[in-house]
Amino acid sequence: MAGEEGVTLESLRKKMAEFARERDWDRFHSPRNLLLALVGEVGELSEIFQWKGEVPKGLLDWKEDEKEHLGEELSDVLLYLVRLSDICGVDLGRAALRKLELNALKYPVHLCKGSSRKHTHYSKANEDSNTSAPEGAGAGSSW
Ligand SMILES: Nc1ccn([C@H]2C[C@H](O)[C@@H](COP(=O)(O)OP(=O)(O)OP(=O)(O)O)O2)c(=O)n1
């Protein structure tokens, strides 16, 4: 039900499994089909922003029906992602938490605060500092 509290990835996973089973759609929900459906929905989501230029956070000047449409397309992406993960035997919640930990290791606060550069920039800077001439010999930092 819309507005229901306590939505979890697991509850969405179960609802999608039930939705497919009731319609005898398990045979269509193969990994490849779900991936293509997911990409299609990402396209529909992108269309909402297409040609608008940058939009303000919170979308305060959007009409209610535009925001509702946005919610629908975001949901389609999420639901197909949840279903794809399930069909592939991936625990999406666990995988996402693990990925967050990996991200934190790749992007330590002390190196990246206030910078949106890719992590390869920091490893490259580190390599350069390991191979560069001793301090004071004219080797400048690359960032
Ligand atoms: N074989 C299918 C078809 C649909 N859905 C579910 C997941 C999505 O949340 C939604 C997608 O439905 P549509 O393909 O009809 O796409 P839209 O809802 O975006 O409609 P439209 O393409 O008309 O804008 O329905 C599904 O699980 N499996």
From TrEMBL:
Location(s) in or outside the cell: Cytoplasm, Cytosol
GO biological process terms held by the UniProt record: dCTP catabolic process; DNA protection
Keyword flag Transcription regulation: no
One cellular component term from this protein's GO annotations in UniProt: cytosol
GO molecular function: dCTP diphosphatase activity; magnesium ion binding
Metal-binding among keywords: yes
Known EC number: 3.6.1.12
Required cofactor(s): Mg(2+)
Region spans: Disordered: 118-143
Keywords: Cytoplasm, Hydrolase, Magnesium, Metal-binding
Source organism, top-level taxon: Eukaryota
SUPFAM superfamilies, sorted: all-alpha NTP pyrophosphatases
Catalytic activity, reaction form: dCTP + H2O = dCMP + diphosphate + H(+)
Quaternary structure (record): Homotetramer.
PANTHER family: DCTP PYROPHOSPHATASE 1, PTHR14552
Function: Hydrolyzes deoxynucleoside triphosphates (dNTPs) to the corresponding nucleoside monophosphates. Has a strong preference for dCTP and its analogs including 5-iodo-dCTP and 5-methyl-dCTP for which it may even have a higher efficiency. May protect DNA or RNA against the incorporation of these genotoxic nucleotide analogs through their catabolism.
Listed name of the protein: dCTP pyrophosphatase 1
